[in-house]
UniProtKB/TrEMBL annotation:
CDD domains: PBP1_ABC_LIVBP-like. PANTHER family: AMINO ACID BINDING PROTEIN (PTHR47151:SF2), LEU/ILE/VAL-BINDING ABC TRANSPORTER SUBUNIT (PTHR47151). Residues 29-373 form the Leucine-binding protein domain. This is Branched-chain amino acid ABC transporter substrate-binding protein. Pfam families: Peripla_BP_6. It comes from the Bacteria. The lineage of its organism: Bacteria, Pseudomonadati, Pseudomonadota, Betaproteobacteria, Burkholderiales. It comes from Inhella gelatinilytica.
Length: 382
C-alpha cells in the first residue's frame, strides 16, 4: 500500500483514538531494577522493587519534560535471586533492552559482577543498598551508591561493640557472600582497633539453617557478643538455635539483619535488646518528617510496611530522573556527567551527593535494637 493510500487510514486511527498524537511524541525512558524477588530474602527484594514502582508512578503523574518532550517512564524489573550468575544474566538482559539507567542490585554479591556489564555498556547504575567497598573502587564511572559502605558500617559497629556495649569477648560469623564477609571483615578491624578481643571467626552460607556445630564451638569460648555478617533469613534461625543452646550473647549485625521481618524469623527467640544492628543510611531532625511521610505513603499504597531500602530505591529513581531533566536528555552519555556531579539532592533519605568514586558523601548510619518485637532507634551516627 502506498503512503498516499495509507495516510487516510492513519488519520482515521488517530481520530478514533487508536493512536494518540501526544502519546506518539512521548519520550519513553526505561529504568531497570534488579533485586532478589525469589528465594530466602525475597521480602527484601520486593520491598526494593515497590520503592521503584512508586517512584515511576509518581514521575509519570508529574508529566516531566526532558529535552522539550513529555517523559514517560517504564520500569523493567528483574529478579536475580541474590545469585551472582543470575545477576549478570539480568544485567545483560537490561543492557539488551537498551535501558536508560539501572537501579540495583540489592546485594553486593550481585551488584559487583553486574557493574562491569553496565560499565561496558555505558549505562548509569545506582545501587540503593550494596555496601561492599569494592563496588565503587573498580574505576567504573557508571557506578554509584546512596548508602554508606562496609568500611563505615562494619567499622562503626566494631567500635560501638567495644566502646559502648563494652563487649569483652567477641565471636564473628559470616555467610561468605561479598556482603557478609565484607561487613564482617570491617567489623573485626573496627573491634580490634578499639581494643576488642576476637576469640573466634566462623562461617556458614546464605542458605544455611543449621548452626548447631558453629554455635556449640563458640559457646565454649563464652562470648558476650556475636557478630553475624549476613541476612535476616539466616539470622532468624540462628537466634532460635542460640536460645536453644542457652547462648545469651548479644547478636550484632549490619543492614542485612536490620529488618522488620527479623522478629518473625526468630520466632520469639529474641530477647529485648539482644540484637543491635545498623542500617547504612539515616535521617534526623527535620529530615525525618520526609522519611516518615514516605513510609506512610508506602503503607497506604501497598498495604505493607517498609522493610529497609525501598526509600533509597525511591530516591535513586528520582535522582536519576532529575539528572536527565537537568541534562535535557535521557541518553546515558549525556546525563551521566550530570548525575556524577550530584550535590545536595533533597531525598527522603536525606541530602545526596557523590564523591569522585560514586560513593555518597557524608553517609550516615542508623543504629537500632529490638524491643517488643519491633525495631527501636538507638542513634544516627556519621
Amino acid at each position: 500500500m502506498s503512503f498516499m493510500k495509507l495516510r487516510p487510514v492513519l488519520s482515521l486511527l488517530i481520530t478514533a483514538g487508536a493512536v494518540s498524537p501526544a502519546f506518539a511524541q512521548d519520550l519513553v525512558i526505561r529504568i531497570g531494577h534488579v533485586a532478589p524477588t525469589s528465594g530466602g530474602i525475597a521480602h527484601l527484594g520486593k520491598d526494593n522493587e515497590l520503592g521503584a514502582r512508586l517512584a515511576i508512578e509518581e514521575l509519570n503523574a508529574k508529566g516531566l519534560q526532558i529535552g522539550g518532550k513529555k517523559a514517560r517512564f517504564e520500569l523493567l524489573a528483574e529478579d536475580d535471586a541474590a545469585d551472582p550468575k543470575q545477576g549478570t544474566a539480568a544485567a545483560q538482559k537490561l543492557v539488551d533492552a537498551k535501558v536508560n539507567g539501572v537501579i540495583g542490585h540489592m546485594n553486593s554479591g550481585t551488584t559487583i559482577p553486574a557493574s562491569r556489564i553496565y560499565s561496558d555498556a555505558g549505562i548509569p547504575q545506582i545501587s540503593p543498598s550494596a555496601t561492599n567497598p569494592k563496588y565503587t573502587r573498580q574505576g567504573f564511572k557508571t557506578a554509584f551508591r546512596v548508602v554508606a559502605d562496609d568500611g563505615q558500617l562494619g567499622g562503626t559497629l566494631g567500635r560501638y561493640a567495644v566502646k559502648t556495649v563494652q563487649a569483652k569477648v567477641i565471636a564473628i560469623i559470616d555467610d561468605r557472600t561479598a556482603y557478609g564477609q565484607g561487613v564482617a571483615d570491617e567489623f573485626e578491624k573496627g573491634a580490634k582497633a578499639a581494643g576488642g578481643k576476637v576469640v573466634g571467626r566462623e562461617f556458614t552460607n546464605d542458605k544455611a539453617t543449621d548452626f548447631s556445630a558453629i554455635l556449640t564451638g563458640l559457646k565454649a569460648k563464652n562470648p558476650d557478643l556475636i557478630f553475624f555478617g549476613g541476612m535476616d533469613a539466616v539470622a532468624g534461625p540462628m537466634l532460635r538455635q542460640m536460645k536453644a543452646l542457652g547462648i545469651t550473647a548479644k547478636l550484632v549485625g549490619g543492614d542485612g539483619i536490620c529488618t522488620g521481618e527479623l522478629p518473625k524469623l526468630a520466632a520469639g527467640s529474641m530477647a529485648d535488646g539482644q540484637v543491635i544492628c545498623a542500617e547504612a543510611g539515616g535521617v534526623e531532625g527535620e529530615q525525618k518528617k520526609g522519611l516518615d511521610a514516605f513510609k506512610e505513603k508506602f503503607r497506604n499504597k501497598f498495604n505493607v510496611d517498609v522493610q529497609v531500602y525501598s526509600p533509597y530505591v525511591y530516591d535513586s529513581v528520582n535522582l536519576m530522573a532529575a539528572a536527565m531533566v537537568k541534562a535535557g536528555s535521557a541518553d546515558p552519555a549525556k546525563y551521566l556527567p550530570v548525575l556524577a556531579k550530584t550535590e545536595g539532592y533533597p531525598g527522603v533519605t536525606g541530602k545526596i551527593g557523590f564523591d569522585a568514586k560514586g560513593d555518597i558523601k557524608n553517609g550516615a548510619l542508623t543504629l537500632f535494637t529490638y524491643k517488643g518485637g519491633a525495631r527501636e532507634l538507638i542513634s544516627v551516627v556519621r
